[in-house]
Specification:
The chain is of the alpha/beta class. The chain has two domains: 68 residues, Winged helix-like DNA-binding domain superfamily/Winged helix DNA-binding domain (Arc Repressor Mutant, subunit A); 231 residues, D-Maltodextrin-Binding Protein, domain 2, CATH 3.40.190.290. It is built from eleven helices and 14 strands. Strands 3, 4, 5, 6, 7, 8, 11, 12, 13 and 14 form a ten-stranded mixed β-sheet that branches. The chain is elongated.
């Protein structure tokens, strides 16, 4: 079994067709067929059902696919590490992060990293915590910045993973706050609101794949409250802009309010909602030098954010 055979297998599984897979791999179809046949012979199992041109994975193929993807990703990581060890000023870092972190912590990190290491290629994947952890476990990412929302100490929202090979480093804990347009009268003179008080205000919610939305909606369900939603399904930037225009209020992490003079925030009490920001990577794979540099810069930037203590209305973003 070799990497070319695994690449051929993954491509046939992806396209469901030998001819299309051969074209993508720039191989003659007979060569591709021989590679698959040799792989099946070496493994002692058929990997594909071949019925009238319809190609589907067998049970053995289904088992091999995630392993093959991981082996190919690990081999690519080794190639990049060898280039770095050879003294080339180049490399690659594949970072995943949740949408709310992409407009706050990640933006700061990437700007600093690019200045310090201009020859390193940066690849950013934006998604929910669960999906990012799956990509990390499968070898598609080097590092992932994930969030876990918490109410009164109980874990909620995305970010779980059954893989024992993933290591997480807690970075920050921050409060979730309620925001409105800076000149909006919705909050009056109040510095905080209860969940019941929030429920009667016109609210803008995020897309379903946001961990933040899941945590907020769960808090309403636990309190037997029904929020008054005027707009749902927005991405972070759209939600912030709609709030700035006075369409309603929203629950957001305190960190996103940096450089947003058009927004006002109050604290959420009874219950107080927080989220934990963590940095994850695979413990069974040694980080490349480029990924290690990114790893260290993320931790340093999180420390700076916590030490500056700059969040809305005196809230504390603190290192864990």
């Amino acid at each position: 079994m070799n990497l070319e055979q695994l690449q051929s297998f993954v491509e046939v599984a992806r396209t469901g067709h030998f001819t299309r897979a051969a074209a993508q791999l720039h191989l003659a179809q007979p060569s591709l067929s021989r590679q698959i046949a040799t792989l099946e012979s070496d493994l002692g199992a058929e990997l594909f059902h071949r019925v009238r041109g319809n190609i589907t994975l067998t049970a053995a193929g289904e088992s091999l696919l995630p392993l093959a993807k991981r082996m190919l990703a690990d081999a690519e990581a080794v190639r990049h590490e060898m280039h770095e060890l050879a003294g080339l000023k180049q490399g690659r870092v594949r970072l995943g992060a949740t949408p709310t972190l992409c407009i706050s912590l990640v933006a700061e990190v990437l700007a600093s990293f690019h200045t310090a290491y201009p020859g390193i290629d940066l690849h950013l994947t934006e998604g929910g915590s669960r999906g990012l952890l799956d990509d990390l476990a499968g070898g598609a990412l080097d590092l992932a910045l994930i969030t876990t929302s918490d109410e009164g100490g109980s874990s909620r929202g995305g970010g779980s993973s059954s893989s024992a090979s993933l290591q997480r480093i807690p970075l920050l804990t921050e409060e979730l706050v309620i925001i409105s347009a800076a000149q909006s009268p919705l909050f009056g003179n109040r510095k905080s609101l209860t969940l019941a008080g929030l429920a009667v205000l016109p609210q803008i919610t995020f897309h379903e794949n946001y961990d933040l939305r899941a945590a907020t909606m769960q808090a309403f369900r636990d309190a037997s409250l029904t929020p008054q939603i005027v707009l749902e399904g927005g991405e972070m930037d759209a939600v912030l802009r709609c709030v700035e225009r006075g369409l309603g209020v929203a629950v957001v992490p305190a960190m996103v309010l940096t450089d947003r003079p058009g927004l006002r925030s109050v604290r959420l009490s009874a219950p107080r909602l927080t989220r934990e920001v963590s940095l994850a990577h695979r413990s069974d794979v040694t980080l490349t030098r480029a990924a290690r540099a990114m790893h260290d810069m993320i931790i340093d930037t999180a420390d700076i954010l916590s030490s500056v203590n700059t969040t809305a209305e005196g809230l504390i973003v603190r290192a864990l």
